[in-house]
Design a protein that fits this description.
This protein is mainly beta and 179 residues long. Helix content is 12%, strand content 36%. The chain has one helix at 3-23, and strands at residues 45-54, 57-65, 72-75, 79-83, 93-96, 113-116, 121-129, 138-140, 142-146, 154-156, 162-165, 169-172. Residues 1-19 form the signal peptide.
């Protein structure tokens, strides 16, 4: 082979070898540690169920889903603030147990402590009345919910809003195992 072709061929061969090396499988990558998705930055996700209405009494379920990687302990009642459409807190009394709104029932049993496993859920119930007596009715849009005092807050928007009438109060039941 003439010397000029050898000079041209050497870079071509080196380039071909380099390209082949890039296509060769490399070492197996180490598994990436499981991460909590952005939607689950707090380790939990709270959602509101449909509003059930009958004769002016409203009931709605709250579901906490443990979307984190560790068990999530709950003990007692969710902490709730009632918000308008601009997410401004409204002057609403929030009571634990059904009594501020309705007759006590099976949901009013003592709040059991529970631990929600990863992927598991817990439920609580929100009650209110739409009674209108004196003044302007309060129509809320959102609930800001914390699983417990000091926990991060998440805002849920019940389908149809929260029509409190002029009662100015809602009631909460404790977190329970849905099983």
């Amino acid at each position: 082979m003439p010397r000029s072709l050898r000079r041209l061929g050497l870079p071509l061969v080196a380039g071909a070898l380099l390209a082949a090396a890039c296509d060769a499988p490399g070492p197996t990558p180490l598994p990436t540690p499981e991460r909590t998705p952005a939607a689950c930055a707090d380790g939990f996700e709270i959602t509101a169920g449909p509003v059930d209405s009958a004769a002016g009494l409203r009931a709605m379920g709250l579901t906490l889903r443990n979307c984190g990687n560790l068990p999530y302990p709950l003990d007692g009642f969710p902490v709730v603030r009632v918000l308008d459409d601009a997410r401004t807190p409204l002057a609403v009394t929030v009571g634990n147990g059904s009594a501020p709104v309705s007759a006590p029932d099976a949901w009013d049993a003592a709040a059991p402590g529970l631990t929600v496993p990863p992927g598991g859920t817990a439920r609580a119930r929100v009650l209110w009345r739409t009674t209108v007596t004196d003044g302007d009715p309060v129509a809320a849009t959102h609930l800001a919910v914390r699983p417990a005092a000091g926990a991060p807050e998440q805002v849920v928007t019940p389908d149809g809003g929260i029509d409190l009438g002029t009662t100015g109060r809602i009631a909460l039941n404790a977190w329970r195992d849905p099983g």
